[in-house]
């Protein structure tokens, strides 16, 4: 591993910060979701209902505990810490012309605290935190006007924090909305609420194109402000394997990967790939994409590829000559790998496969900005948490990551473990699905002292960082 490898941890503002209405912050999309759980989905509400629990409103109160938490990150030896800037803390409604100074000051102070402790901030601009005002007023990213709103937000952040933050990403897991049937994914990615009878697929593709244009414009502006800034994209990388070497399975996997990862071709190459142009034409989608937009895409290519990796998928062919893919119906079990208690496939070798696939295709530096193991942790009477299962999972993935770098020659900037401190689950809003090295005393119903304590994995990861990955 390179000597300046960026070991660290990752969270998102909406899953840790809390302080949802402090010092001028507006409501964001995640603030509008209730808690879910077994047999219960998170509900999206139009207003804050008095008898519902909104777990992101307090989260783990990082807003007031960040100095304590950063001290623990330093003790572990973090070289970097990935989080996001809550857009609604800077532009409460999203379309203001002037930012909220109190919101900017919070991140000034938090970034200074990280740097004082030798930790580089790695910052995502839009991580499921777009202002809810943009949903109410414009319908979210279905509206072209959001391009200017995002670019204004990005420019303010680049100008303000250019000497504190080197590594940036524009949109978190922009490709999650490839499954346009998933209401929460589309709402948190793009702020879109569908009406009866709308063509969901066409609307989501249009929103994604507007986001990609906004990202490209932001990249160009960042480089003009400070050429030393590194601006990346962020993908949810779930490689889709063919179930077998049957040519139908192979082709189905090609089509599936097209649908999930075409966003990367735009981010990294500045073009709409031919297979997507053909798809749009075949579907009869008359998408709003101007010559000026195409030029913006061409001149706003990213500097590196950030991605999350938790699992791989598999798919079987069906003889469809158009290579169409529907994520809800076209996946199948992979008999060669196991699953977590949440049903997520465990495939450490898939991380090596992913790193090779990406580097072969784009020849850009990469950054693993999410990888982690969610589990129900048992806190013992003495306060300890024996999470050997988490250590085992991370160890296997780091071993495969090292092979990709040391044997395969992949250019990798860093590795940040997701949920390095326990945080609110994005998918269910629960606390019991824990990822962290640091236990936070908080329960699904919002009760708890918020006291922080170390799990066994804390000392293990500390040793991994100390030895640059040599001791696992």
UniProtKB/TrEMBL annotation:
| Keyword line | Glycosidase, Hydrolase
Q: Which segments of the protein form a coiled coil according to its record?
A: none
One GO cellular component assignment for this chain's record is: cytosol
The catalytic site is made up of: 370
Provide one Gene Ontology biological process annotation: carbohydrate catabolic process
Q: Which GO terms describe its molecular function?
A: beta-glucosidase activity
SUPFAM superfamilies, alphabetized: (Trans)glycosidases (SSF51445)
Identify the PANTHER family for this entry.
ARYL-PHOSPHO-BETA-D-GLUCOSIDASE BGLA, GLYCOSYL HYDROLASE
Assigned protein family: Belongs to the glycosyl hydrolase 1 family.
Please give the name of this protein. Answer: 6-phospho-beta-glucosidase
Q: What species does this protein belong to? A: Faecalibacillus intestinalis
Lineage, top ranks: Bacteria, Bacillati, Bacillota, Erysipelotrichia, Erysipelotrichales
């Amino acid at each position: 591993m390179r000597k300046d490898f960026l070991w660290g941890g990752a969270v998102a503002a909406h899953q840790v910060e809390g302080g949802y209405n402090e010092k001028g912050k507006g409501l964001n999309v995640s603030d509008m979701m209730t808690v879910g759980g077994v047999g219960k989905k998170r509900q999206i509400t139009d207003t804050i209902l008095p008898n519902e629990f909104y777990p992101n409103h307090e989260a783990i109160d990082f807003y007031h505990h960040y100095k304590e938490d950063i001290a623990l990150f330093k003790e572990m030896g973090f070289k970097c810490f990935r989080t996001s800037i809550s857009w609604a803390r800077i532009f409460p409604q999203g379309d203001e012309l002037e930012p909220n100074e109190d919101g900017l000051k919070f991140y000034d102070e938090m970034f200074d605290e990280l740097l004082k402790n030798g930790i580089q901030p790695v910052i995502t601009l839009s991580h499921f935190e777009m202002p809810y005002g943009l949903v109410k007023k414009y319908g979210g990213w279905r509206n072209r006007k959001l391009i200017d709103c995002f670019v204004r937000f990005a420019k303010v952040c680049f100008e303000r924090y250019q000497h504190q933050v080197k590594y940036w990403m524009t949109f978190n897991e922009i490709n999650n909305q490839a499954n346009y049937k998933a209401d929460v994914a589309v709402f948190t990615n793009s702020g879109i609420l569908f009406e009866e009878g709308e063509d969901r697929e066409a609307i989501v593709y249009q929103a994604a194109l507007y986001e990609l244009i906004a990202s490209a414009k932001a990249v160009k502006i960042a480089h003009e402000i400070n050429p030393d800034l590194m601006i990346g994209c962020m993908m949810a990388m779930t490689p889709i394997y063919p179930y077998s070497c049957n040519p139908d399975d192979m082709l189905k996997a090609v089509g599936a990967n097209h649908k999930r990862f075409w966003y990367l071709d735009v981010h990294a190459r500045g073009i709409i790939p031919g297979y997507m142009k053909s798809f749009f034409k075949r579907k009869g989608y008359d998408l709003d994409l101007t010559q000026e937009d195409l030029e913006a895409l061409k001149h706003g290519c990213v500097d590196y590829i950030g991605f999350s990796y938790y699992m791989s998928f598999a798919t079987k062919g069906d003889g469809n000559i158009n290579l169409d893919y529907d994520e809800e119906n076209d996946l199948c079990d992979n008999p060669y790998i196991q699953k977590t208690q949440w049903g997520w496939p465990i495939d450490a070798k898939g991380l090596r496969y992913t790193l090779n696939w990406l580097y072969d295709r784009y020849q850009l530096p990469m950054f693993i900005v999410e990888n982690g193991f969610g589990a129900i942790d048992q806190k013992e009477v003495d306060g300890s948490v024996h999470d050997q299962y988490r250590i085992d999972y991370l160890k296997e993935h780091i071993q495969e990551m090292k092979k990709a770098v040391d044997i395969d020659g992949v250019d990798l900037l860093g590795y940040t473990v997701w949920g390095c401190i326990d945080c609110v689950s994005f998918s269910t809003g629960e606390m019991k699905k824990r990822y962290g090295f640091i236990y936070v005393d908080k329960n699904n119903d919002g009760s708890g002292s918020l006291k922080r304590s170390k799990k066994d994995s804390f000392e293990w990861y500390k040793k991994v960082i100390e030895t640059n990955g040599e001791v696992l």
